[in-house]
Amino acid sequence: MNARPSRARPSRAGTTSHAANSLIGFGCYVMLTGAALFLAPNATLDFLRTARTNEHWIRLLGMTAMVLGAYYIVAGRAELTVLARASRWGRIAMATGFASLVAANIAPLLLLGVAGNEMLGVLWTTIALRADARAGRGAG
């Protein structure tokens, strides 16, 4: 008996689910952020009103973000709805952590904007999952 696990398949052209589009969009956002940290770390840190650094850790973070963003894009193209559902919790945790750093006066107020961006992404993914569920494309 050949029991092979089923693999998610990319949707056919023009039929990408709303949840998949939210993953792809989020993946592009994360990749661009990562590229900015990797290629121009101090310019990115200046934009975020955060202390500049010449240490390598910021570029490592940027590279990690680019890889993570690529995973989101691949997951979206493969219609991995389970990742769309799970990612909401991680993104809420990240936004909460960012807001906590601002509240503790460890990070600048501008970081609340990044946290807000995360929450907008969570909202987009939640609405997309519900729209897909109504259309019979999976559970939200």
Order of helices and strands, N to C?
HHHHH
Mean pLDDT value = 89
Helix run count? 5
Number of strands: 0
Question: In words, what does this structure look like?
Answer:
The protein has 140 residues and is an all-alpha fold. It has one domain (18-134). The protein contains 5 helices and no strands. The protein has helices at residues 18-39, 41-47, 57-77, 81-103, 111-134. α1 packs across α2, α1 (18-39) runs antiparallel to α3 (57-77) and α1 (18-39) packs antiparallel against α5. The longest helix has 24 residues, at 111-134. The protein is globular and about 50 Å long. The model is unreliable at 1-7 (pLDDT under 50).
Topology:
Blueprint: H1 18-39, H2 41-47, H3 57-77, H4 81-103, H5 111-134
Tag the structure with descriptive keywords.
69% helix; disordered N terminus; 5 helices
Structure in a nutshell:
With 140 residues, the protein is an all-alpha fold.
